Task: structure prediction
Amino acid sequence: MDTRRQFLKTAGGATLGALLLPQLSQAATVKNVGIQLYTVRKEMLDDAVGTLKELAKIGYKQLESARSAKGLYYGLQPKEMKNVASDLGMTLRSGHVAIDENWQKTVDQAAESGQEYLICSSLPSEGQTVDNYKRCADTFTKAAEVCQKANITFGYHNHDYEFKVVDGKPLYDILLTNTDPKLVKMELDLGWVIVTGNDPVAYFNKYPGRFPLWHLKDMDRAKQESTEFGKGNINIKEMLQNMKKSGVKYFFVEQEEYPKTAMESARYDFEYLAKLNY
Result:
């Protein structure tokens, strides 16, 4: 009996191990982490090169810039920004910009910096109406055509207001349905989507391939503020598990409010992701 009991115990353990191994092998670790430089906006204005060095030490690999008081590249020239990042083992992939009368110059600078994406960070005209969103969609198409000539992909970054429902449909969907999916992409800010009561995965399923970029953030719903990963109401792990559905190429950590300093939060968020299996 002891021999049989031992056999069953061993066989059962082997069977359990066989069941668990596929699950373990499917677990992935987070790699190639990017950061939206608006997270460290003050630091970038004070010392752009020094701040990039600190981010590189933390382990960030991909960068997305944002408009600042010193221009689109924090006082650096586009090619200078590219070279500094490259020397530090990072790549400037994207930048947040506005569509204005200087659009061609913006595109030319982006090409010089080597970035792949230009992202409009706010609606080019105001108005929470279907007609205005259709006008914005037309503007996006024209802006994207200019980008395409420079081998740059155009996209739009959402906040919360785009998810206002008009005639039973979120205004955000007007942008998606009135633009060419091959020409106009979307950078989905996962935090704002979820805070508004919407499901990013539903958008991934409904509009496949439209979301090559993400802003990955955690949000405190009660305060309507971003927070460090794992301290808010966003399931970061679940979002990462749906990367394939999204077709995402790059994601950028973004945090706008901090318990202490921006750089400490940037480090905390990176280390949180480094320990995460999904």
